[in-house]
Write a structure and sequence with these properties.
Layout: H1 2-17, H2 26-36, H3 41-53, H4 58-101, H5 105-134, H6 137-143, H7 146-149, H8 152-168, H9 172-185
Amino acid sequence: MILALHLFWEFFKTGLFAVGGGLATLPFLYAMSGKTGWFSTSDIADMIAVSESTPGPLGVNMATYVGFTTLGLFGGLVSTLGLITPSVIVILIVAAVLQKFKESAIVKSVFYGLRPASTALIASAGLGVAKISLLQIPVWEKTGSLTALFNWKCILLAAVCYVIYKLTKVHPVVVILIAGVAGVVFGL
């Protein structure tokens, strides 16, 4: 029961402060990884892959994933409830307050201030995922070779996926499926 409460609390804090959506939860997950030992930082890349490949919001999927791997089905429910509870509370409060103050200069300024914070959190998460996915830091540290630093297959796959997505406007699920097949075929 203590572990369940700990899961709820960690994801409650994440849900309360991860302004900007699912990717904004990543810095909190990195911190949680080091603090709790429930998962490694390299597991986060797998969580993102699974979460992006399944229906639902990224943050909720990752919370469910961590909870499930930590404490089974009950853990998945507890961590998911922990993540979404602050949003429900905050949305109810914000909706009530915004009706009264939606034209306020202060409210508008707060929202303008939150946008760069959200952008920074999402950029931090993206760079963290890129580091795990596209670089081979342990190999580079052992060899010292600059060419060993880069995971060239993954960089090429990321570039191809980006081009396919931008040029064709194909649904993201198609890009994810292409990447999954390429991972199997090319042994990534």
